[in-house]
């Protein structure tokens, strides 16, 4: 009887242990997801066509899960260096392997490549389609008529942009000794492009996709036989300072799950850049109209 009593007691104990273990597993499975950690985040960006939309989108998503996100508009060099030195936390504007190759080479030890968000991002010199005799970068070499018509000038954007470095390399690779690359900003370049198109005048600019301008005017990208601009195109990545995954696990999970497609970006870019709508409002409208997509980006992440 004593043996039976002990066995019975032992069986009850085992059942309790199994119940407790099952309870623990259930608790883990229904946990609230990654911890929030550091709640103040800084996201630098350059006011390029896609980057303005994408930065505001990521900022809005992170605010939905409990973070305070400061969006800081800077130049390309500062965008990269601030994440590398830890004064900023992440950006979603890494065009690799070609366009931002020099920045990646300089800062890769201090920056983590989190996620590819867009898999096709071609860059090139571009001209209005009515410039029928100009279809390749090779067509610029020694082209006196074209050179004189545009004062031997390629109208560029901000000097720290990777596409500006690509263009300087293209000048050397294609022997464009007479040509000059001017710098200003994307907005200033687009103003000159639009004015030229309205008057059907020649102009040459560096351009890339995704970009809203292709939806508003007939512009063609020039062939690049030597693939100075990366051939088929770059991919765009979100990158973060080393240590962000540990310091802000919930934010990092969102960064790992965030991605884009052309349909999404092309829907929002014209509203911001052609119609001059507030990017924060444009992004919020997209979030409200696309709850299934938002659920995918925030899967497993608690919202606050």
From TrEMBL:
User: What are the start and end residues of every segment in region (Disordered)?
Assistant: 8-40
Q: Which residue ranges run through the membrane?
A: none
Keyword set includes Transmembrane: no
- Stored Pfam families: OpuAC
Question: Which cellular components does GO assign to this protein?
Answer: ATP-binding cassette (ABC) transporter complex
> Where does the ABC-type glycine betaine transport system substrate-binding domain start and stop, copy by copy?
45-288
State if Cell membrane is listed as a keyword.
Answer: yes
Q: Which UniProt keywords apply?
A: Cell membrane, Membrane, Transport
Q: Where in the cell is it found?
A: Cell membrane
Query: Which GO biological process annotations does it have?
Result: choline transport; glycine betaine transport
Give the matching SUPFAM superfamilies: Periplasmic binding protein-like II
Q: Give the chief site where it resides.
A: membrane
Biased composition, class Acidic residues, residue ranges: 13-32
Matching CDD domains: PBP2_OpuAC_like (cd13639)
| GO MF term set | amine transmembrane transporter activity; carnitine transmembrane transporter activity
Name of this chain's protein:
Glycine/betaine ABC transporter substrate-binding protein
Q: Which organism is it from?
A: Lentibacillus amyloliquefaciens
Recite the lineage of the species: Bacteria, Bacillati, Bacillota, Bacilli, Bacillales
């Amino acid at each position: 009887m004593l043996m039976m009593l002990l066995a019975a007691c032992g069986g009850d104990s085992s059942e309790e242990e199994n119940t407790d273990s099952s309870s623990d597993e259930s608790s883990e499975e229904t946990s609230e997801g990654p911890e929030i950690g550091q709640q103040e985040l800084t996201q630098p960006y350059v006011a390029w066509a896609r980057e303005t939309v994408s930065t505001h989108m990521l900022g809005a998503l992170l605010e939905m899960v409990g973070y305070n996100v400061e969006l800081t508009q800077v130049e390309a060099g500062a965008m990269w260096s601030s994440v590398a030195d830890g004064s900023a936390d992440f950006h979603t504007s890494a065009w690799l392997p070609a366009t931002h190759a020099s920045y990646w080479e300089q800062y890769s030890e201090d920056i983590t490549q989190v996620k590819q968000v867009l898999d096709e991002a071609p860059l090139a010199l571009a001209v209005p389609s009515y410039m029928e005799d100009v279809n390749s970068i090779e067509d610029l070499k020694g082209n006196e008529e074209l050179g004189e018509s545009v004062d031997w000038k390629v109208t560029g954007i901000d000097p720290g942009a990777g596409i500006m470095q690509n263009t300087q390399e293209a000048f050397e690779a294609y022997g464009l000794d007479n040509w000059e690359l001017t710098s200003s900003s994307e907005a200033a370049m687009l103003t000159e492009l639009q004015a030229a198109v309205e008057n059907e005048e020649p102009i040459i600019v560096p351009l890339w996709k995704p970009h809203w301008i292709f939806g508003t005017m007939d512009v063609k990208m020039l062939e690049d036989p030597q693939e100075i601009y990366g051939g088929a195109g770059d991919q765009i990545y979100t990158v973060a300072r080393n240590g962000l995954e540990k310091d802000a696990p919930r934010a990092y999970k969102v960064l790992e799950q965030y991605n884009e497609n052309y349909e999404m970006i092309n829907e929002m870019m014209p509203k911001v850049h052609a119609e001059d709508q507030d990017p924060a409002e444009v992004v919020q409208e997209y979030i409200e109209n696309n709850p299934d997509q938002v659920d995918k980006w925030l899967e497993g992440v608690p919202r606050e």
